[in-house]
Amino acid sequence: YPRRHTPETRLSEFNLTEIEAILGSYTKVLFVRDPFQRLISTFMQGMGSSPSFSSFVQDVLDSGQHNASVAWKPLVSLCRPCLIQYDYVVMFGFLRHELGHLLRRAGLPVDSLLPEFTDTQVQWTYSWLSEQMFSELSLQQKKQLSHFYHRDLAAFPFSSSFLSD
Questions:
Q1: What pLDDT, in 10s, does the model give residues 25-38?
Q2: Residue 149 has pLDDT above 80, yes or no
Q3: Residues 6+ apart with CB under 8 A from 99
Q4: Model-level pTM?
Q5: Where are the domains of the chain?
Q6: How far apart are CA 72 and CA 39, in angstroms?
Q7: CA-CA distance, 53 to 136, in Å (whole number)?
Q8: Which phi-psi region, left, alpha or beta, contains residue 16 (left: φ > 0; alpha: ψ -120 to 50)?
Q9: Bigger pLDDT: 92 vs 94
Q10: How does it sit in the membrane (predicted)?
């Protein structure tokens, strides 16, 4: 469908037969990250106008899933993993290993294309930061966040997520 398929064209503009043909012609890679870590990252980047993490989380919860920003909307509703059969799912924290595998599968030179990742340092930092931020939340907010992201937590193996408890 080269006539209609441009970088600006949304997949939803095609019919189901066209969508299946288009998706079948691509290698589909989904990058996923613990939803609580996505919230922390969004807050740290100043994407919310809240003065504290707790009030930011309350703003997120008050917005609801349908009005949520792409920055914190549940991944399942953004990427539709139940409808699209992804060829690879890459978890944040394992980027160097998994991207190396993807590049090898594509026949590309691994060492010259990959930037230097510090996955273990990032994981330790987010673990510590998650613990600090999670302690700021009320029990009610923790329960609401777990419910807000329950489909993401069911779809992906975020076993160490603070929201999994």
A1: 888 888 898 999 89
A2: yes
A3: 90, 114
A4: 0.77
A5: 12-155
A6: 6
A7: 7
A8: alpha
A9: 92
A10: Single-pass type II membrane protein
